[in-house]
Amino acid sequence: MGWMIVQQPTGQFARFSDIVDNFTAYDMTAGQAVDECQLNSIGVDEALSAVVNARRHKNGKRFEDAIETIRLIHGKEQADKRKAELGYVDEDDPCPHCSGTGKKGGRHELSTT
Asked: Which one of 9, 29, 105, 112 counts the least CB within 10 Å of its CB?
């Protein structure tokens, strides 16, 4: 296929490309993810299936696999940058912008104070 839809730790969706081994779209709603799939000339049923499959992997396995591919191909710095952009917070490395320490694979939440 060349790409897959993954669910980010924030609950939003991202498109991961096997061609560039990186995310090519992220922070999408389910509807936007379906539209993104259809841009690749697939039908509505197949697009909906891609989003449903991403939701089924909510435990983060698909996301983790994508990040690991980025780390292997582009290096740890690029993988860490993508994790931060897509809302991933390591439990042992709290985000300086986060209202709490977060959890591994947890949602990045900005402080309102």
From this structure: 112
Look at residue 68 and tell me if it is in a domain: yes
Q: What is the dihedral of CA 3, 46, 63, 77, to 10 degrees?
A: 20
Number of domains the chain is built from: 1
pTM assigned to the model? 0.70
- Structural domain contains residue 19: yes
Structure tokens at 53: 């499959």
Q: Per-block average pLDDT, block size 10, for the chain (113 residues)?
A: 86 92 93 84 78 69 91 96 86 51 42 34
Assigned domain for 82 exists: yes
C-alpha to C-alpha distance for 63 and 7, rounded to whole angstroms:
7
Checking DSSP bridges between strand 13-17 and strand 3-7, what pairing results, if any? antiparallel
64 domain-assigned = yes
DSSP string, 5-62: EEE-TTS-EEEEETTTTEEEEEEE-HHHHHHHHHTTT--HHHHHHHHHHHHHTTTSHH
